[in-house]
Amino acid sequence: MGLFAGLTGWHLLAIALVILVLFGATKLPVFAKGLGQSIKIFRKEVTEVQDDMAKDRAQRSDEHLDRETVTTPDPQTRRASEDR
């Protein structure tokens, strides 16, 4: 079970009222704006990290394919070498 699994709507309402009393109605918009900006920055950073990881995987995949160049002999060349 998660940390907030037992919370109901009434619990969340009580928590919101406590926050309102502690910080006051005038400071809540400032906190909400700061929280929103922080979430936006966090999401941007997560996206950048995921993009970097995808580029690294693609680059490693390309390097791996470059090292695994497989050559198949020409059928005529193979027959000539088998005849010897």
Automatic annotation (TrEMBL):
According to its record, how does it sit in the membrane? Single-pass membrane protein
Q: What keywords sit in the KW lines?
A: Cell membrane, Membrane, Protein transport, Translocation, Transmembrane, Transmembrane helix, Transport
Give the subcellular location: Cell membrane
Comp. bias intervals (Basic and acidic residues): 50-69
Q: Listed GO cellular component terms?
A: TAT protein transport complex
Top-level lineage group: Bacteria
Task: Name the family.
Answer: Belongs to the TatA/E family.
Give the protein's biological function.
Part of the twin-arginine translocation (Tat) system that transports large folded proteins containing a characteristic twin-arginine motif in their signal peptide across membranes. TatA could form the protein-conducting channel of the Tat system.
Please give the name of this protein: Sec-independent protein translocase protein TatA
Q: Which organism is it from?
A: Amnibacterium kyonggiense
